[in-house]
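Example: Tryptophan-rich sensory protein.
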Amino acid sequence: MTPADVRAERAGSGSQRFVRRWPRRIAVTVSFVVCVLGSMVGVGVFGGTPIAEAAGGLLAADSTHLAPASGAFSIWTAIYIGLGCYTVWQWWDDDTRALAWPAITSMLLNAAWILVVQAGWVFGSVLVIAVLLGVLALLFVRCLRRRPSSAIEAVVTDGVFGLYLGWVCVAICANIAAALAGAGFDGFGSPQWWSVGVLAVATVVGVALARFSRGRLAVAASLAWGLAWIAIARTVSEPSSTVVAIAAGAAAGVVALTAVVARVRAPREIAG
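Written out as structure tokens, the predicted fold is:
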């Protein structure tokens, strides 16, 4: 085979790979658009009902002891911007297959969750967010297995999906509490201490994620952010609870501190 034949074969295989990647890249882009449109419905655009008012207000900041204050939801701005950056980046990266399909699924599930809440199906929304949490966990593990080729790649993969995962870890707690409240569950007669138990589980999950990821800051930051806003909500709005506020604040601090310690220790463990 002559050098010209080799070059022609490489060009052909490169063209084939480029064509095969097009459907995946388009699917990611379409999913991002659907995700953004869903979020717009969730804030009341296109005739949608704001999430805090949908489903009888079960997801409002004053609905349960585990509901974050409204300021917590500003994190979605960062998540959507991050997903947009990922969507743009994946058009130029040659190795996105491992992340693309879980990313697509996560964005579609996010839109589905909003539509299910709009329909008032709170227990259905718990099922959707549980699947979303599983998909994001898989996606985060795949991010950890990759070796980012640049700081930009690290931000739009580990950073974005870590932020997304950490927030959903908190959101599922609030979602389950809302669904149970709607069904008349009173926390076995002690909603404050039941909520503290849930926060303890969230803390264990946050610590495990921090250690497993060797201190990835994005996932810990968003999880701690959500927990901190639960503490704020129980301090400044109903149902007020000093016990839950202290527990949520302590949980946020433990998760954040564990991540920092794990990140400091990670280079030493690798070197050892």
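The chain has one domain: 22-264.
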